[in-house]
Structure formats: structure tokens, C-alpha cells
Design a protein that fits this description.
Shape: globular
Number of helices: 6
Helix content: 25-40%
CATH architecture: 3-Layer(aba) Sandwich
Radius of gyration: 15 Å
Pfam family, one: Abhydrolase_11
CATH class: Alpha Beta
Order of helices and strands: EEEHEHHEHEHEEH
Strand order of the largest sheet: 1-2-4-3-5-6-7-8
CATH topology: Rossmann fold
Protein name: KANL3/Tex30 alpha/beta hydrolase-like domain-containing protein
InterPro entries: AB_hydrolase_fold, KANL3/Tex30_Abhydrolase, NSL3/Tex30
Structural class: alpha/beta
Length: about 200
Amino acid sequence: MTRVEVDTPHGVARAELHSAAEGRAALLLGHGAGGGFDAEDLVCAARTATSSGVHVALVEQPYRVAGRRAPAPARQLDTCWLAVAEDLGQRWFPELPLIFGGRSSGARVACRTAEAGGASAVLCLAFPLHPPGKPDKDRGDELFGVEVPTLVVQGESDPFGEPEPSSQREVVLVPGDHSLRADTGAVSRAVSEWLGRVLRLLD
């Protein structure tokens, strides 16, 4: 494991790099709005990806590096994410396909930036389709606009909603709520099976 810092237009971001024995792609994972990259589902996804032959970078946004809990505005999050993706892609993962991903707010960032960042696929853990109890405030456009293969792993009782699958988007429901802590084995299986299919497409 290697930790690196990346300068962005809105401060210093941090990435924790985990190398796979055979690096066939690189997965960048972003954290939720109020948490870090030690969330159980992110740790689980990172371990699963490296076991599947995919390098992983757990990305910490500048507001978290600076010690703030309140997230930065969406535009700043996206700008910082793209800066990190470009830097890591050149320095650590040259010529490898990049997969964007994250949990909750990090999943939204991954979706919004997938096209601009040239992502080959997107992994969403607990995508917050709408605020709890407010289905009218739908954020589906962020997810539904992604045109590359996408996996959404969602808790069966997640109060943030349940996205619909499509031809490009797989939705796997697992036991538990928005934290995805109830059955990390199910999370791991979903990520592993999906990565296997994605890697075959990328080969």
C-alpha cells in the first residue's frame, strides 16, 4: 500500500494505492459525504478488486484531507476528482483502463465525471437516488446518464431509494441499509462477478 498526495484546484487530495498482482485495470474509489475511505463497503470492494487483478486507489477529497466534515459543492468535488484521476492515470496507471467508483456521494461524483474522465466502467456502492423520504428530489439523471457498463450495489432497505437496471446498468440488491455493512460477502460477490465481466470486455 502506498499513499500519495495530489494537488487539485481546490486543495490537496490524498490517495491510498493498493496494487494487484496482475494489474489489468485501475479502480478509483471515492468516499461518502461525511465519511472516509475506511468505510466497510469501500474496503471490501478494494480487496475484491485487487484479488480480481485490478489496482485500486482510494481517493480522499481535499475537504476531508483538510479536516472538514461538510462536503464541498458538487462542482468542486468533480473538479478535484478529475484532477486526481488524470494525475494517477499518468503517474501510476499509464495505459490502463480506469474504472470510476465510490460509495454514496462518491458514487454520484463517479457518475458525473465518467464521460469527462474517460472511465471504462462505473461502480456505485449505495447510490443515493434521493434523500430519505423525498422521492421527488430525484438524482437519477446522474446515474442514468452514464453510458459505460455500471454496477449499482444497493441495500434492500436503503432509504435513499432503489435504482432501476438497464442494458448498461446492473443493480444488485444485498441485505442491509445504506451502509452496506450487513453482508459484505454479498457486496464482494457482486463486485467480483461484475469486474470479471468488465475485464473480459476490456481485454
